[in-house]
Amino acid sequence: MASDDFFWMRRALAEAERGRGAVEPNPMVGSVVVRDGRLVGFGHHTRFGAPHAEVEALSRAGDLAQGATLYVTLEPCCHVGKTPPCTEAILAAGVTRVVAAMRDPFPKVAGGGLARLREAGLAIEVGVESDGAERLNAPYLKRLATGRPYVTAKWAMTLDGKTATASGDSRWISGPRSRVLVHEVRGQMDAILVGIETALADDPELTARPPGPRVPARVVLDGAGRLPTTSRLALTAREIPMLVALTERATPERREALAALGCEILPFPGTGPVPILLLLDELGRRGMTNLLVEGGGRILGAFLDAGQVDAVDVFIAARVEGGQPRFTPAQGEGRSRMADALRLERQQVSLIDGDIRLQGVFPPSWRRLE
What we know:
This protein has 12 helices and 14 strands. With 370 residues, the protein is an alpha/beta fold. Helix 9 links the parallel strand 8 (217-221) and strand 9. Zn(2+) binds at residues 52, 77, 86. NADP(+) binds at residues 156, 172, 198, 202, 296-302. Substrate binds at residues 170, 186, 206, 209, 294.
């Protein structure tokens, strides 16, 4: 493993990042082709169904791929899917060495792509910048391991930890630039989820404005079916997918009224809260990779209690609201000891026109990496 391998793999990871929001449920993949220490080709998976990163990079390299090294952030595929196998394109291009950041746990690949190239006589290296590759595709890896989408919890709060005043007013805690960034995040998601109390209090649309690479579905946890038929969510259900998760508390009349407007009803058993794990199972069956949970506090608390918050994206405004803590970001059962509180990893902190943006991830209990 040469020292240059790390440099070029980081270049490939930067390429892969360019596909965020456009390639799911596929993973983000980047590739570069290097010959005699010089970059001769680069590419990334641009959108679902489009040519893979290796094919894009080899196409740019052309004849210069002969005898070159190909760097790729994920093991090349060896099966026919939306596109032909990348292994065959690599062999046809005359590449003599392949460096992959990590193996692909997808069952139709799972080491088979690298084995095919090794059997054909290519030199193979695996594991260069593997941590970066795993972080990049954590949503893809979670969905493969568990069948459930990767959950990002997003909220805005004051310096004293309030998500609204005592009267329920929350517009606006964060500044305009922060809200622009939230819409960018929304446009990369498969779905955006809130609880019924948030839907009733704010009457949100839960859309990305301007639109991003994805059009996220909207999900409301509404056990009793209280979402008003006059709400913006219900009235736009025929234009943008709207899922209403109900339990047996919802009457047939309420189900029918929402369904008549185009809302898709997700029924769950029991008369208690919507079960988080069963809900995530259903969203995963629909091919969803990324879910943004925007609240309120009881919903975020329920996801935390279920161990199903993978990342957070928090905007902290330079404001102090005071008063009693009626509205806080996460409620639920919580932890009885501070020592047991979840600890955020890989924190990123940025200043956004006076707001503080804090991003990070929690250790993945679902991890199933080779």
